Amino acid sequence: MTTKAALSFAVGVVVALTYMMAPTDAACDTTKMRRYDGDLIAEGSGKTMKLYLIYKGCARYVNPRTYFNLFKSCVKYTKNADLLEAISAKCQCKALSDGAALIRGPNANLGVFLLTDGGKVPIANPATFYAYCFNYAKLKMVPAFILPKINTLATLTTSI
Prior knowledge:
Elements: H1 3-19, E1 40-43, E2 50-55, E3 58-62, H2 64-70, E4 76-77, H3 81-87, E5 101-104, E6 112-116, E7 119-122, H4 126-131, E8 140-141
Parallel strand pairs: 1-4, 5-8
Antiparallel strand pairs: 1-2, 2-3, 5-6, 6-7
């Protein structure tokens, strides 16, 4: 990515964050769901299929644009009652931000982040990155001077 393209992307990120709201998930028992963190679950099939990411114990809808921004092809189909209940209307979790992205600074020591919910979510380590089925090829570089200007949210970890 050229410097001009990286700067253009970074400016877009800052502008997008200015207009994003991060509503709170509705009350929902996410404790038992944390063991599924990182699972990308399909509900339905074909044209009616919907994808959900189990993220911090909550099933969050992933629209097609966001799916192609973040993930490798590793969708799981499930009949697990806990997961299906979380996906149902009983647990109203907000969707991942439309167009959520994976970002990093120009050098490795600045970290890798999931850009969603009005901020950057640090990804704790490579094991977490791969447990969430993120696609390394989808990482976008952001200039180092932009990263501190993006609100930092809680670190993404997993017990997988």
